[in-house]
Amino acid sequence: MTIGAWLDARQPAPPENLSAHLRRVLGASLEKPERETVARCLDAVETLLISLRDYPEAGREVALDLLAADALITYAFEAAAEDPLTLAEVAQGAMWRVGTVAAELEL
Fold it and tell me: What SS3 class is residue 2?
């Protein structure tokens, strides 16, 4: 199964506009094997957060990006939960990646 097929199987399905945005953000990763879901979702979250960090004057126009980042983190943990022995490692890695982007904010 591909990441795209795995996403299609999620219930409840996200709203259509969010689903389309997730697919745009994931791009070619949608064709990767399901076993890469955690890594590819976290890669996409990091990319989204970096783009938002670099656009500090952003307003409502980035709301869909924020929703996509939230959904992708959720999907990463949902996929990770399929192997509970790796869940703590995934959580630690995700916190480090998101924290690194946040730490690079110019205040």
Answer: strand
